[in-house]
Amino acid sequence: MEATMNGRKGISVNWEGSAICRPMIVVKPERISELIDIINNEKKYPTPVRAVGFQHSMTRCAVADGGTIVDMRNFDRILEFGQRHVRVQAGIRIHDLVKALDNRGLQLCACPEFGDISAGSVACTSNRYISSQGILGQLSSTVVGMKLVTPLGTKLNLTAKQPDMLNIMRSSFGLLGILYEVTFAVRDKIGFVVERRQMDIDDLSLAMAGLKSDGTGVRLTLYPFSGKAQLETRRSVKLGTETRQWIPTLRAWGWNCWVPFVAQLLKRLIPSSRLRGKQLDILLFQAQKTFARLFPDRTTEMSAVCLPSSRLPKWGRCTYTTWAFPADDFSILAEKYVAFCRQYEREHRFRCDLPTKAVLVPKDPASLLSYAADGDVYTLDVFCSGGKGWEDFLIDLNQFCSANGGVPLLNQTKLLSQRQAVMGLGRKLVTFKRLRRTVDRQNRLSNTFYQPLVG
Ligand SMILES: Cc1cc2nc3c(=O)[nH]c(=O)nc-3n(C[C@H](O)[C@H](O)[C@H](O)COP(=O)(O)OP(=O)(O)OC[C@H]3O[C@@H](n4cnc5c(N)ncnc54)[C@H](O)[C@@H]3O)c2cc1C
After folding, report:
1. What is the second-level CATH architecture of the domain 74-189?
2. Cα of 118 to ligand 1 centre, how many Å?
3. How many Å lie between the centroid of ligand 1 and the Cα of residue 230?
4. Is it the case that residue 404 has pLDDT exceeding 50?
5. Is 251 touching ligand 1 by the criterion CB < 6 Å?
6. Band of pLDDT at residue 320, cut at 50, 70 and 90
7. Which class in CATH covers the domain with range 2-72?
8. Is the CB of 61 under 6 A from ligand 1?
9. DSSP letter string over 137-163?
10. Ligand 1 in contact with 424 (CB < 6 A)?
């Protein structure tokens, strides 16, 4: 087992650079026996113990100040391909898994668009992806088995025969154990077709009212300051020969890498946030519209939109926070959100300089703390290049979201307060808290991020 740094020198930083942490030790185990030793030997591996994958979370959920970071990336093998499942080690990169399945004519039952993330992290945290017929909005909900080392240092093997335990573990956030193996449900490859419509935000309610509830996926792009929106619908289809993969790949690269990069570049060139925000809004909306017109998608393979990694310099990256809202009233919520952004801008001279996205996630009670447990939701994904004013904005945004019935994603909602977490997740959070305290009396796996939220 490799120990890579000690607390005096070492710091560990997440993708966007916001979660700086000073662990006492970072270890990279290769065997399960080493994982057990890490949990049992508190002297050598101080509390808190946090398993991490690629540290691509935007929040501080993977920090372990003064404690132990367990880098799981040596657990990177695919152990078994089945007709309807794949069993992998928890540190494998999802992009590598997607490609390996693709070569066998198979795919995951969710469609991640950023693949530089580990199987272990997505199996036990809240995530959100665009769904379509036969494709879920959360990867964690497609987990049908997992193996872990509990906070007591014992091994636990969960299969589909223990649905209640799996339900709890799918949203356990690394607090009830370190996952070393995950089994995902898989399916034969299908493709999707996309339709895009650009419109004024004022026309969004009407357009959304006309959406079919037949499993069609929906993604919205909102430009609060230019009053524009794009409505994108996605239908699953059988894969034919007429596929063209480079356009969706290019589009995914554009949104995940180049758009944030351009936002950061503009920030340096045009320091005035008012001017810059408006210009970028208009520029991006026009670019999105032109791209959609010039390059209409044909049938797309899901693997084409799973990006391997973002090699952009740290200064060119963006950040985001996420909440979820009942789908029925989402067009009203979107109106209120636009008004909130404009008012905030007037009062504080701060605006998010990237468009906001929203993704429809169908009802999904597969995990205890699922944000979509009670019905279909839209996630509200607020993107920004960050910097001065962003954290203050988040505080007001959280109040707005919480007051409007928002449900947080515990690992993806930034600067969340305990009250807001309880308001959003209700009794289920209390149940989880009790369970966590029973399973981990010594608080071996809890860190400063989760402690205030889940006790
Ligand atoms: C460019 C970009 C695009 C993104 N797009 C999306 C998106 O479309 N949808 C979405 O939902 N998210 C998205 N994300 C967020 C990211 O996908 C998730 O946060 C993901 O879980 C990060 O994976 P990771 O391996 O880096 O996990 P980490 O950040 O390393 O860890 C995440 C959490 O999981 C825990 N954990 C990790 N491994 C284990 C394990 N083996 N056992 C127990 N607990 C563990 C950690 O302690 C931590 O709490 C994006 C991030 C970036 C940078």
Report:
1. 2-Layer Sandwich (3.30)
2. 7
3. 27
4. yes
5. no
6. very high
7. alpha beta
8. yes
9. S-SGGGEEEEEEE-TTS-EEEE-TT-H
10. no
CB of 52 within 6 A of ligand 1: the answer is yes
Q: What is the mean pLDDT of the chain?
A: 91
Is it the case that residue 8 has pLDDT exceeding 50? no
Beta bridge partners of 384: 319
Question: What pLDDT, in 10s, does the model give residues 209-251?
Answer: 989 889 999 999 999 998 999 999 999 999 876 666 777 787 7
Hey, whose CA ends up nearest to atom 15 of ligand 1?
Answer: 57
3-24 per-residue burial string, b: 16 or more CB within 10 A, e: under 16: eebebeebebebbbebbebbbb
What is the rounded CA–CA span in Å between residue 51 and residue 69?
6
Q: Cα(203) to centroid of ligand 1, in Å?
A: 35
* C-alpha of residue 454 to centroid of ligand 1, in Å: 19
**Angle (nearest 5°) at CA 212 between 370 and 208:** 80
Residue (of 379, 225, 196) closest to 296 by Cα position: 196
Going by CA atoms, what residue is nearest to atom 5 of ligand 1? 114
C-alpha 143: how far from chain center? 16
CA–CA distances in Å: residue 335 to residues 36, 332, 372, 379, 443: 51, 5, 21, 15, 42
Could you tell me which of 31, 30, 25, 61 has the C-alpha nearest to residue 43? 25
Distance from Cα 132 to the centre of ligand 1, integer Å? 22
Measured in angstroms, how far is the CA atom of residue 306 from the centroid of ligand 1? 14
Mean predicted confidence (pLDDT) in 59-71:
95
> 7: pLDDT confidence band, cut at 50, 70 and 90?
very low
Q: For the chain, give every domain's residue range.
A: 2-72, 74-189, 191-421
Identify whether the C-beta of residue 22 lies closer than 8 Å to the C-beta of residue 10. Answer: yes
Average pLDDT on 375-395 reads 95
Does ligand 1 lie within 6 Å of residue 370's CB atom?
no
Res 4: pLDDT: 58
* Nearest CA, atom 36, ligand 1: 121
**Domain spanning 191-421: which superfamily?**
FAD-linked oxidases, C-terminal domain (3.40.462.10)
Closest residue to atom 9 of ligand 1, CA basis: 128
Spell out a b/e string for 124-150, using b for 16 or more CB atoms within 10 Å of the CB, else e: bbbbbbbbbeebbbbbbbbbbbbbbbb
Is the Cβ atom of 114 under 6 angstroms away from ligand 1? yes
Span 44-55, pLDDT tens digits: 999 999 999 999
Among 125, 146, 310, which is best to mutate for testing ligand 1, by the most ligand atoms less than 8 A from CB? 125
Q: Whose CA is nearest to atom 16 of ligand 1?
A: 57
The alpha carbon of 293 and the centre of ligand 1 are apart by a number of angstroms equal to 33
Per-residue confidence (pLDDT) for residue 256, from 0 to 100: 74
